[in-house]
Design goal:
The chain is mainly beta and 480 residues long. Helix content is 14%, strand content 39%. The protein folds into three domains: 111 residues, no CATH class; 192 residues, no CATH class; 159 residues, no CATH class. The longest helix has 34 residues.
C-alpha cells in the first residue's frame, strides 16, 4: 500500500512535468524556428521480490521520473516575408550569433535586421556572424558627390554624412574566424574605366559602283559607349572603309578608331580643329578626340578574319583593348568568325561586350544564393560585402538550450565546425534563403494528443493515491 501510494505521488510529479513540456511546446507554436521538446520517462529503480531466480520477472518498480528532454530537430516549414534579412536554412546547420561579451551561441531563427550602429542583429541584440570582405573603408568625397548623399542635423549643427567606399573584390571566401557584420548606410562605388571592348559585326564587301561604273569604297560605322576613369560616358567610334579596287579573293578594310568625349553644343561661329574635335552640326553636338588609332583588317573569300593591326587605345590614360575577333587558325575553334567578318549579308546583328561601369550610390542590401550579403547600387552593380557562416555539429541533439530558439554547444554536441570541400575550402553546406523564415516544428494536433495522454496518466496516478489512501484507512480501521 505504501509503495503504490508513493508511486502515485511520483507519477503525478513526473507527468506534471510532462504536461509542462507539452504546454511549453504549444505556447511556442508561433515562435520562429522553435524546436519542440519531448519528455523521456524511466523507472526510478526496482526492488527484488525474492532471492530465488525467476525466468520471467522477479522485481517490482518503484515509480517513474522524467530523466531528460529530447529536442526535436526536424525542420519547420518555411514562410515568405517582405524583409531582406529574414533568412532560413534549407537543410541542417545553425546561424552563429554573438553577445557583447564575445560568447557565441547558435540558432535557426533567421530574423535579423540592421541596428542603429549598422550591425546585423537579431531581436535580442545578438550579432550575426560572417566573413567580412574587407572591401569597405571610410572615404572623403568631392563636394558634388557629398551633395547627393545629403546632410544630417546633429547637436544643432548641420554636417555632411560620413561616406564609405567599396571595392569589387569578387566572391568572399568563408573563414573560420567569423565576426559581426557592419553595413554602412552611406556607401559609394567609384567608377571602373572600360579596359576591354569586344565587338561582333559584319563588314559587307558587296561591290558598289558610281554612275560611271567605277567601284567606290564601302564604309561601315559603329559606336558604343565606354566609361572613362572619371566615370564619364564616352563614345568609342569605329569606322571601317574597304580598299578599292577589291582584291580577287577576300577584302581589306582600313580602320579608323576614336574615343570621343562630349563637349557641348555646336557653335557655328567657332572654328574646330579636326585633329582635336569631331563636329556634328546637324545634331548640334561637338566631341573632343581623347585618342585615335588606325589599322588594317584583312578577310578571306569566306569572310573570315585573317589579320588585324588595330593597336590598343588610351581611355584617358587607361589602356583599352579592342577585340575585333581572333584571326583564322585551324587549331583554334571558331577563330576567324568570333568578331568582325566580311560576307555579303546585311542581316547579321551586331553585338558588343565590355567592362567598366559608372559610379554608384547604395540603394540597399540583398542576399545571394551563396549566402553573401551584397550591396546593391543605383548603377546596377551588386558587390558582396560579407558571407554568412553556417555552423555544424557532430551531434545536434546534444546542444544545450539556453532559451527559446537559442542554443550553446556542450560536451555532448561537440565543437562547432565548418564543412570543407575537396580543395580544403570552407563552405556552408546549406543554402541561406532570403525573405524566408522557418516556423516552429511543433505539430499542434500531435501536441494536443500528447497533452490528453499526459492528463489521463496524471488522473490515473491521482486515482492510485486515492485508492492507496483508502486501503490504508481500511487497514487502520481493522479490528482484531
Amino acid at each position: 500500500m505504501n509503495r503504490s501510494f508513493y508511486n502515485g505521488v511520483i507519477g503525478i510529479k513526473s507527468h506534471q512535468m510532462g504536461i509542462d513540456i507539452v504546454a511549453n511546446n504549444i505556447s511556442n507554436i508561433e515562435s520562429t524556428a522553435y524546436k519542440g521538446e519531448e519528455a523521456e520517462f524511466q523507472t526510478i529503480f526496482s526492488q527484488t521480490l525474492t532471492g530465488k531466480y525467476s525466468p520471467t520477472s522477479n522485481d517490482v518498480g518503484l515509480g517513474s521520473a522524467v530523466t531528460s528532454t529530447k529536442t526535436n530537430l526536424q525542420q519547420g516549414s518555411l514562410i515568405s516575408t517582405d524583409h531582406t534579412f529574414d533568412m532560413a536554412l534549407d537543410s541542417e546547420g545553425w546561424f552563429g550569433v554573438m553577445n557583447r561579451l564575445g560568447e557565441i551561441n547558435y540558432t535557426r531563427d533567421g530574423s535579423f535586421s540592421i541596428d542603429a550602429n549598422g550591425d546585423l542583429t537579431n531581436a535580442t541584440g545578438l550579432y550575426l556572424l560572417g566573413s567580412l570582405g574587407g572591401n569597405i573603408s571610410p572615404t572623403t568625397l568631392p563636394k558634388e558627390k557629398l551633395d547627393k548623399l545629403g546632410s544630417v542635423y546633429e547637436n544643432r549643427i548641420t554636417k555632411e554624412q560620413q561616406a564609405y567606399t567599396i571595392k569589387d573584390t569578387g566572391e568572399i571566401p568563408l573563414s573560420e574566424n567569423l565576426s559581426k557584420i557592419n553595413l554602412p548606410d552611406i556607401l559609394y562605388l567609384p567608377p571602373k574605366p572600360t579596359t576591354t571592348v569586344s565587338y561582333r559585326a559584319n563588314l559587307d564587301p558587296t561591290i558598289k559602283l558610281d554612275n560611271n561604273g567605277n567601284e567606290i569604297a564601302n564604309t561601315e560605322h559603329f559606336t558604343t559607349s565606354i566609361i572613362s576613369p572619371k566615370g564619364d560616358k564616352d563614345t568609342l567610334d569605329m569606322s571601317f572603309t574597304k580598299e578599292v579596287p577589291q582584291q580577287q579573293t577576300g577584302s581589306t578594310w582600313n580602320a579608323d578608331i576614336k574615343i570621343l568625349h562630349y563637349e557641348g553644343d555646336y557653335n557655328p561661329d567657332q572654328t574646330y580643329d579636326p585633329s582635336k574635335y569631331v563636329v556634328y552640326p546637324d545634331q548640334n553636338e561637338v566631341y573632343s578626340i581623347i585618342d585615335k588609332q588606325e589599322g588594317v583588317l584583312t578577310f578571306d573569300s569566306n569572310g573570315a578574319l585573317l589579320s588585324n593591326s588595330v593597336p590598343p587605345l588610351s581611355n584617358s590614360g587607361t589602356s583599352l583593348t579592342l577585340n575585333l575577333g581572333t584571326p583564322l587558325d585551324p587549331n583554334i575553334s571558331s577563330s576567324g568568325y568570333d568578331g568582325l567578318i566580311s560576307i555579303k549579308d546585311n542581316n547579321i546583328s551586331h553585338s558588343v561586350s565590355k567592362d567598366g561601369y559608372t559610379d554608384g550610390y547604395l540603394k540597399g542590401y540583398g542576399l545571394n544564393e551563396n549566402g553573401e550579403i551584397v550591396a546593391e547600387f543605383d548603377n546596377g552593380k551588386s558587390i558582396p560585402v560579407a558571407k554568412i557562416g553556417v555552423y555544424h555539429f557532430q551531434n545536434d541533439e546534444g546542444l544545450e538550450r539556453i532559451s527559446g530558439s537559442l542554443f550553446k554547444e556542450s560536451a555532448n554536441s561537440g565543437k562547432a565546425f565548418f564543412y570543407k570541400d575537396a580543395n580544403d575550402n570552407l563552405f556552408n553546406g546549406s543554402n541561406i534563403l532570403s525573405h524566408k523564415l522557418e516556423q516552429s516544428n511543433v505539430n499542434l494536433s500531435n501536441a494536443m494528443t500528447e497533452l490528453i495522454i499526459m492528463q489521463k496518466a496524471y488522473d490515473a496516478n491521482a486515482k492510485c493515491i486515492t485508492t492507496s489512501d483508502q486501503m490504508i484507512q481500511k487497514a487502520i480501521n481493522m479490528k482484531v
